[in-house]
Amino acid sequence: MIIRRSNERGYADHGWLRSFHTFSFANYVDRNHMGFRALRVINEDRVAGGHGFGAHPHRDMEIISYVLEGEMEHKDNMGNGEVMRPGDVQRMSAGTGVLHSEFNHSKTNELHFLQIWIEPKQLGIKPSYEQKAFPTAERQGQWRLVVSEEGREGSVSINQDVNLYAGLFNAGEQPTAPPSRHAWLHVVNGEMEVNGETLGAGDAAAFTPDESISLTGKEAGEVLLFDLA
């Protein structure tokens, strides 16, 4: 197990935007943390009320947005216009090229969300968009598959061989980790004991295919687990 501590991440403060970067991103460059398998970006963003990211382009990247607090307004040149709330998962396949914007839907309350980039399995595909809600009850005390290549079990589909699970666990709970190959575990909030080590909000850990993953909740919180080829 290799641990990536929250306070070791890159950080950018733009006033209206405060962002932590698990992997190299924009002006933060760390050759030791360029990504993990097909997982390229995990940015934890806090956007002030009335602000956001204006229209900007992407191509050949699978982009997942996961809202933690507040509301995020999405618009793109494919004609999609949605408002995301906590528990919502959005996937945008940029493919041959897409233009989109993301704004805090509120003029006063802060928006807190994760932006995740995954390198695509196939390049040059037609751009597409998908969004689904995963209620708290579906994640409480269990792992909920929220993203998969085939869109299994009602999950959001993605152009890559990856499974993303989300779970909400109370103190004392010992969830059995789903089967994984190369795994990346990201603690969203709360505190977990993982293979004997304490991981708090923003901490993460990487696992090889032959490693077992033992988890115990120390404080109630949320965890994401990426299963990657």
Automatic annotation (TrEMBL):
A molecular function (GO) term: metal ion binding
Cofactor section: Fe cation
Cofactor note: Binds 1 Fe cation per subunit.
Binding site for Fe cation: H56, H58, H100, E102
Stretches assigned to the Quercetin 2,3-dioxygenase C-terminal cupin domain: 145-228
Domain Pirin N-terminal positions: 9-118
UniProt similarity note: Belongs to the pirin family.
Name of the protein this chain belongs to: Pirin family protein
Organism expressing this protein natively: Vreelandella maris
